[in-house]
Structure formats: C-alpha cells, structure tokens
Design goal:
It comes from Qipengyuania profundimaris. This is DUF429 domain-containing protein. By secondary structure, the chain is α/β, with parallel strands linked by helices. The protein has a domain of 146 residues. It has ten helices and seven strands. The chain has a five-stranded mixed sheet with strand order 4-3-1-6-7.
Length: 302
C-alpha cells in the first residue's frame, strides 16, 4: 500500500455566509506526534485555496462531506428527470453551473430549482421524489457507502435531507461545488483511481473515526480535551495540549487526522467489497467504510 507524508482532515460546513465556525482543518504528520489544528476561522474559498496552492506534497486529504448523491438505488441521481448524468464530476458541474451566482459556494439556487427541489426534504416540504418510491419517503435515499456505515454502527443521513442539525445535504452540495473547482488539480478517490504518488482527496465520516477510537455513535462528538486525548490515545496518537472545553468541529478534525494516519496503510480500506466500478464513479465512497457482509453488490448493504 502506498504511503503518505501528511494527513489533512477537514470538518466542513454547508451553512450560509462567508466565514464558518463549522469548518476546521487539522494535520497529522506521518512521522508521529500530536495532530495540529490550523487555528483560523475559515471560508470555503480559503479551503479551496489551501487545496489548490498550499497543500503539502503527498497529503491524504479527508473531507467530511458526501462527494456524491445516491444513484444505485434508482439507477439515476434524479429519476424521472430529463437530465442524465453519467458520473459524479458531471453532477458537480451541474450544481456549480446552476449556482454560479450563489456566493461562497452556496447551493440555494440548486435546492430551489424546480427541476431538482422535488428530490430534497427542506424545512417546509418533503419533495415528491425524496424517496426512490414516491409513495414511501421514509428517511430518504442512501448511497451504498452510507449503508455500509450503518452496518458499522454509524447513523448516516441522506444527502437529500436539508433539515435538522444533523442534515448533510447542503454541506455535501457545497463541497461538490468546491470539488468541481479542483477538477484536474487533485484526484478524488474512488471517482479517480488512487494515484501512485502525490496528494489525493477522500471522503471521511468523522463519527466513523470516533467509533474506531472506542466511542459509541451517540458519543461521537468530543467537547473536552480530556475526551479527545483519550480517543487519540486509542488510535496510538500523542495527545494535544490544552484542558477543558473544545468545540466539536476542532476535535472532529484533530481526531480524524490521527485516524487517517493510522488506517491509510490498510489495503482493505481502499478495496471495499461492495464498491463496484460503477458505484465508485457515480456515488463515490466513504474512506474506511466496510460492509461487514462483504458481498460486492448493491444489496450487500441494503
């Protein structure tokens, strides 16, 4: 398995506005030591600049957002829609084009668009196509990787959900706009093959890192340095300095950077059995999510 020199974890935000408390960046070095928080109140544009211009060589970048929308369940991102998109980069381009006038990688124009609003659940309405079966919306549609997360004990949310504190829809959609602007500059695994050298972006789920550090899904958020350092120790990492409260965005990024360093060399993380080439191109995958059932088909995690 190839090696990386640096591990950058980015806790992302889909909130409105320019600067966001919900965005946090932390770096862990391959040689060991404590992960380091890059202390700054970030905008999404500034994160793009880091990834374009200031990224250390040979860095594994973990983005806490969904890099694709469900496709395998209905055979399309937007079934019953005249637009047919062959892969995730085409989806990113569509979102960015519709939202070209939305500042700070906002996506309101997309989720309000009459052709796409029926696929989302927002604060006032559940779209007619929120579920694959129009008559039964339920929790919405899930990618295969999110079903793998559920098998591991996580509690994923549909990327078509725009409601509630745990919603991931706008976070993922704003991230897709950024990924479109990185196209051709940084590969995004598994939509792109893992390069033999150089930096690469992967999708991460910070709760998965927390659970692998010994915390339960209900206790995935760490809001004290003491809890964070206990989790870091479980991953074999040196502790960070500080005592008392820490915001969960910072702790998520710090723990995830250490987790990436620990597991990036495991071959099985890069070869999930349920990830077919078609799923890789259309839906992407959450790095580290493994179907326990092991079957290489959509139903493996259904």
């Amino acid at each position: 398995m190839r090696k990386f020199d640096n591990f950058l974890a980015i806790d992302w935000s889909g909130a409105k506005g320019r600067k966001h408390r919900g965005i946090a960046l932390a770096v862990a070095k391959a040689g060991g030591g404590a992960p380091v928080l890059i202390d700054h109140r970030w905008s999404r544009e500034e994160v793009l600049t880091v990834l374009r211009e200031d990224l250390p060589k040979n860095t594994l970048v973990g983005l806490d957002l969904g890099i694709g929308l469900p496709h395998a369940d209905c055979g399309a991102y937007f079934p019953k829609n005249k637009v047919s998109l062959p892969d995730a980069p085409a989806l990113w381009a569509l979102i960015d084009d519709i939202c070209r006038k939305d500042e700070h990688f906002g996506v309101q124009s997309f989720v309000d668009h009459p052709d796409y609003a029926p696929y989302f659940r927002n604060g006032t309405d559940t779209g007619a196509h929120f579920g694959c079966d129009d008559a039964a919306h339920g929790r919405g549609r899930f990618r295969v990787t999110e079903k793998a997360q559920a098998e591991m004990g996580c509690k994923p949310y549909s990327n078509f959900n725009l409601v509630g504190a745990a919603q991931v829809g706008k976070s993922s959609l704003t991230g897709m706009r950024m990924l479109h602007h990185l196209r051709g500059l940084l590969p995004v695994w598994p939509i792109d093959p893992l390069p033999r050298k150089g930096s690469v972006i992967v999708e991460i789920y910070t709760s998965l890192a927390a659970m692998e550090a010994g915390r339960s899904a209900s206790r995935a958020k760490m809001r004290s340095h003491e809890d964070l350092n206990e989790a870091l120790a479980a991953l074999g990492s040196a502790p960070v300095s500080g005592k008392g409260p820490i915001d969960d965005h910072s702790s998520d990024a710090l723990l995830s950077a250490a987790w990436l360093r620990k597991v990036a060399g495991e071959k099985r993380r890069w070869q999930p059995t349920a990830m077919t080439p078609h799923i890789a191109r259309t839906e992407g995958w959450t790095f580290g999510a493994l179907c326990r059932s092991g079957a290489p088909r959509y139903d493996a995690c259904h």
